[in-house]
C-alpha cells in the first residue's frame, strides 16, 4: 500500500472525466444595436416598453412585413393570479370523465369538450404543421393542451383563437421570444417558411409524442397526462400552505387520508450492540442467498455529481463514475460476488443471484449501463442473470404555477420520475415474474452511490431477518447527520377513517419535514424531532410477492410517496442558446414508501412493543457500515458529506478498524480537515471476498499481514 500524494483523491476529477461549466451568452441583434441578457426575466429590462407582435396569416403567399408597435407598460393588463383551486377542480373533473371512457373514440369526444382544446384545435385537424397524426397522437396533444401546457407546442401553442399571445407571465419576454422565432422562421430571401415543420422539429415532435405516450400509459393509475398535472398542482397547492399556521397532525392526517396520525421514534434491531444475534441474522442471510434477488435503481440523473466525458462533452450517469479503480456499477457486482463466494465456501455450491437494474434515458443512462455490462461480458454471470428495464421520463414544472419547462418547441425538460416507480414498472415489465422464474422470494435493494452498503454484516442480516421472520419490508438504518439531506425512518400511528388503528414503519423524506412539523436544524429549545429518528438510507429488503401485489394494484398506491421537490433549481438552455435557472421540480415517487402499504391494523390503540408484530422492521448499525454516498461533487470549502472524497475517507476508516483487530499497527486516520488538506495517510482497499463479514476477514489474519504497508 503506497502512500498517496498530498492532494485529496478526487475520483470525479479523474482524467477520464471532467466537470465542465462554460458560460453561455445570447445576443439579439436589432439594426445597429443589440439587447444582451443572461436570462429573459422582465426585470432586466427597465424601459417601460411593451412589444405587441401582429399575427401573420398562415395562408399568405407573400412575405409579410414585420411590424412592431410600442405602448407604455401601464396600459398592459396585469398578469392574472393563477387560481390553483379552479384549475385543480377542472382537471379533476376531466380526469373522472376520461376514466369513464372505454375507447379512444370516447376519450377524444370527451377531451374535445374541454374549452382549451376547443379553442386551440378550432383551426387544426389531423394535419399538424405538415405532419399527419394518428388518433392516438392527436389525443396525446389534446391532453397537453387540456392540461394547460399548449406552450410546449411552440408557435402553434402561441396562437389561440383570438390570435393573441398568451403564454407566460411577462409580456416583454413573450414579445422578444416571438420576435426571435419570427426572425428565425424567415428564409434567406426574406420569405416566411410558413407553418410547415422543419426536419428537426418533426423529429422533436416524434420524440415528444413518444414521451407523452409513455407518460399516459405508465401513469394511468392516476389519470395519465391529465392526472399527472392535477397531482402536480395539488402538491404545489399544499406547499403554499407550509408557511401558514396549521396543526401538523391535521395536515399529515389529510395527506395520509386518516382521522389522526402521530409520529414515533421506532424501535430498531441494533446490530452493533447484540453481536451474537447479528451474526446469527447474517448466517440466515447467507443461507437464504439461493432465494434472494438483487435490485439496483440506477435511473437517476445524478445532476449534483456533474460527471462529464471530456472528449464528447456528454453528461454521464453516476454508474460510470470511476471509483477506486472501477466504475460504481462494477463495485456493486463485486460486493454481490463476495457474498456468493462466501456461500460457496460454506456450502460447496455455486449460487448466481439474478440482478434487476432500473435505468432511464436521462444522460443516456440506459445505453451506458447496457454497454458497461456487455463490455465486461455481463461480469461472467451470463446475460440471463440480468434484467434491465427503463423507467419513463416526466416533464419538469415551475414552482410558481406548475407550467412545464420547455427548452424549445416540442422539447420539454424531462427528468426521471424518482426511484419509487420501480414497483409498478417491475410489474409492467414482467420483472417480478422473472424473479419468480429464478425461484426468488425476496430481494435486497441498494443504490449505486452508496459505496459501503455491503460492509460487514448489515446487508446480510437485513435479508436474513426478512426471510426468516416472513417480513414484507425491512430498512437498514443508522444515526442521522444533523442537517443532512436525507430522510428519517419513523413509526407511524394512524387512526383510520373506519375507526381502526394502523401501525407501520415508514420513511419521511427531508423535503416533507415541514408537512409533518419536523424542524430542519439541530435540536432546538422547542424540540426537534430529527434528533430522535434514525436515517433512511434506501437500503431495503423486500418480499417480492408483497411488492408485486402493490405494483399491480392499478391504483395510486402503486406509486408510493409521491412528492414534488421544488427546492432545487432547474437549469436548461433554450433554443436561442440562453441559459436559464428556474425554481421547479417534477413529480417523484419514493421506493421506500411502499412501506405505507404494509401497515398492520388493530381494533384498538396499541402501546409499547408494537414493532415486534409488524410486517416491517429496521436493522441499525454504525453509520460507516451502512451508508456513505458518492452522489455529489465536492466544492471548495464545502462539507465532505455525500461526496466521493468523503466516502473514500469512510472506507479508509473502516479499513483501519478491521486491520486494528488483526493486530496490524497502522496510523489512525485523522480528522476531516487534515484529510482535505493533506489527503489520506494511506490507501487500503481490501477485496470484499476476504469477508465480506469482518468476523471472517479477521480469521484470515495471515492473509492480511502479507500486505505491504508503505506510509
From TrEMBL:
Signal peptide: none annotated. It comes from Sesamum indicum. Keywords: Nucleotidyltransferase, Transferase. This is UTP--glucose-1-phosphate uridylyltransferase 3, chloroplastic isoform X4. The gene is LOC105167026. GO terms for biological process: UDP-N-acetylglucosamine biosynthetic process. GO terms for molecular function: UDP-N-acetylglucosamine diphosphorylase activity. The keyword DNA-binding does not apply. InterPro entries: Nucleotide-diphossugar_trans (IPR029044), UDP-sugar_pyrophosphorylase (IPR039741). The lineage of its organism: Eukaryota, Viridiplantae, Streptophyta, Embryophyta, Tracheophyta.
Amino acid at each position: 500500500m503506497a502512500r498517496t500524494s498530498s492532494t485529496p483523491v478526487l475520483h470525479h476529477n479523474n482524467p477520464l472525466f471532467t466537470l465542465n461549466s462554460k458560460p453561455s451568452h445570447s445576443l439579439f441583434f436589432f439594426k445597429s444595436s443589440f439587447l444582451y441578457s443572461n436570462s429573459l426575466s422582465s426585470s432586466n429590462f427597465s424601459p417601460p416598453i411593451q412589444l405587441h407582435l401582429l399575427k401573420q396569416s398562415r395562408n399568405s403567399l407573400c412575405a409579410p412585413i414585420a411590424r412592431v408597435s410600442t405602448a407604455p407598460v401601464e396600459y398592459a393588463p396585469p398578469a392574472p393570479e393563477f387560481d390553483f383551486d379552479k384549475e385543480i377542480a377542472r382537471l379533476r373533473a376531466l380526469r373522472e370523465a376520461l376514466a369513464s371512457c372505454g375507447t379512444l373514440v370516447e376519450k377524444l369526444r370527451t377531451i374535445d369538450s374541454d374549452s382549451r382544446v376547443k379553442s386551440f384545435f378550432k383551426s387544426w385537424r389531423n394535419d399538424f404543421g405538415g405532419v399527419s397524426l394518428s388518433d392516438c397522437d392527436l389525443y396525446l396533444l389534446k391532453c397537453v393542451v387540456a392540461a394547460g401546457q399548449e406552450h410546449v407546442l411552440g408557435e402553434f401553442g402561441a396562437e389561440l383563437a383570438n390570435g393573441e399571445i398568451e403564454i407566460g407571465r411577462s409580456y416583454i419576454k413573450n414579445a422578444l421570444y416571438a420576435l426571435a422565432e419570427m426572425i428565425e422562421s424567415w428564409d434567406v430571401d426574406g420569405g416566411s417558411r410558413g407553418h410547415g415543420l422543419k426536419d428537426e422539429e418533426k423529429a422533436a415532435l416524434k420524440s415528444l409524442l413518444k414521451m407523452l405516450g409513455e407518460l399516459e400509459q405508465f401513469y394511468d393509475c392516476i389519470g395519465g397526462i391529465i392526472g399527472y398535472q392535477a397531482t402536480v398542482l395539488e402538491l404545489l397547492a399544499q406547499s403554499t400552505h407550509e408557511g401558514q399556521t396549521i396543526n401538523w397532525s391535521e395536515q399529515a392526517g389529510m395527506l395520509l387520508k386518516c382521522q389522526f396520525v402521530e409520529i414515533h421514534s421506532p424501535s430498531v434491531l441494533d446490530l452493533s450492540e447484540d453481536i451474537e444475534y447479528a451474526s446469527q441474522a447474517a448466517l440466515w442471510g447467507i443461507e437464504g442467498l439461493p432465494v434472494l434477488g438483487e435490485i439496483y435503481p440506477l435511473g437517476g440523473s445524478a445532476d449534483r455529481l456533474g460527471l462529464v466525458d471530456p472528449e464528447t462533452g456528454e453528461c454521464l450517469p453516476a454508474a460510470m463514475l470511476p471509483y477506486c479503480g472501477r466504475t460504481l456499477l462494477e463495485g456493486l457486482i463485486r460486493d454481490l460476488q463476495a457474498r456468493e463466494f462466501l456461500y460457496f465456501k460454506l456450502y460447496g455450491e455455486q449460487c448466481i443471484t439474478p440482478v434487476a437494474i432500473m435505468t432511464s434515458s436521462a444522460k443516456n443512462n440506459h445505453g451506458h449501463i447496457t454497454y458497461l455490462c456487455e463490455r465486461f461480458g455481463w461480469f461472467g454471470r451470463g446475460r440471463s442473470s440480468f434484467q434491465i428495464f427503463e423507467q419513463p421520463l416526466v416533464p419538469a414544472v415551475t414552482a410558481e404555477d406548475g407550467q412545464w419547462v420547455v427548452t424549445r418547441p416540442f422539447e420539454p425538460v424531462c427528468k426521471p420520475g424518482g426511484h419509487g416507480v420501480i414497483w409498478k414498472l417491475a410489474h409492467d415489465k414482467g420483472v417480478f415474474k422473472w424473479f419468480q422464474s429464478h425461484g426468488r422470494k425476496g430481494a435486497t435493494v441498494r443504490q449505486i452511490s452508496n459505496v459501503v452498503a455491503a460492509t460487514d454484516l448489515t446487508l446480510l442480516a437485513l435479508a436474513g431477518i426478512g426471510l426468516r421472520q416472513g417480513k414484507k419490508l425491512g430498512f437498514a438504518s443508522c444515526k442521522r447527520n444533523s442537517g443532512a439531506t436525507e430522510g428519517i425512518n419513523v413509526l407511524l400511528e394512524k387512526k383510520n377513517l373506519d375507526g381502526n388503528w394502523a401501525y407501520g414503519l415508514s420513511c419521511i423524506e427531508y423535503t416533507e419535514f415541514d408537512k409533518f412539523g419536523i424542524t430542519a436544524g439541530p435540536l432546538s429549545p422547542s424540540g426537534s424531532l430529527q434528533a430522535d429518528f434514525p436515517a433512511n438510507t434506501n437500503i431495503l429488503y423486500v418480499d417480492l410477492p408483497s411488492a408485486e401485489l402493490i405494483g399491480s394494484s392499478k391504483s395510486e398506491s402503486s406509486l408510493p410517496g409521491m412528492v414534488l421537490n421544488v427546492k432545487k433549481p432547474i437549469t436548461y438552455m433554450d433554443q436561442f442558446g440562453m441559459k436559464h435557472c428556474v425554481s421547479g421540480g417534477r413529480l417523484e415517487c419514493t421506493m421506500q414508501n411502499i412501506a405505507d402499504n404494509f401497515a398492520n391494523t388493530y381494533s384498538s390503540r396499541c402501546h409499547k412493543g408494537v414493532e415486534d408484530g409488524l410486517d416491517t422492521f429496521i436493522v441499525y448499525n454504525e453509520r460507516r457500515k451502512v451508508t456513505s454516498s458518492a452522489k455529489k461533487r465536492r466544492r471548495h470549502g464545502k462539507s465532505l458529506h455525500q461526496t466521493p472524497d468523503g466516502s473514500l475517507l469512510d472506507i479508509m476508516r473502516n479499513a483501519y478498524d478491521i486491520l486494528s483487530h488483526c493486530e496490524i499497527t497502522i496510523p489512525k486516520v485523522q480528522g476531516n480537515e487534515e484529510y482535505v488538506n493533506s489527503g489520506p495517510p494511506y490507501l487500503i482497499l481490501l477485496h470484499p471476498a476476504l469477508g465480506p463479514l469482518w468476523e471472517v476477514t479477521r480469521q484470515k489474519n495471515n492473509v492480511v499481514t502479507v500486505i505491504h504497508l508503505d506510509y
